[in-house]
Amino acid sequence: MAKLYEVPTHRLNEAVKRNSKRFPTDFMFQLKDNEWEDFLRSQNAISKTNKGGRRYAPFVFTEQGVSMLSSVINSERAIDVTINIIRAFVKLKSPRCQAPNLPCVPNSGYAICSVNKML
Asked: What is the pTM of this model?
């Protein structure tokens, strides 16, 4: 999310922590250790924890959480990105799931996908 909003990750995390009441568990949650280790650490772009990489499991934002992020980041870029992300969620929810390369998970409440491809 920080890359999309073009802000450093620590700034996004600070904004979320300062506004924690805006992010209940149905808007944002933290991955469990085994979830982020299996999924995220398998990607080459993630550095090792002993080399100065991620020390804590990342946060995941639901559609509502993404919408709330634009209010705490408060920039034109955040507004534009949020609009496009919400449009991507709408496409994922469509009956035919108009994103052929992404898995449709009916009634899941969230989707694991690359939003970059849909923006």
From this structure: 0.62
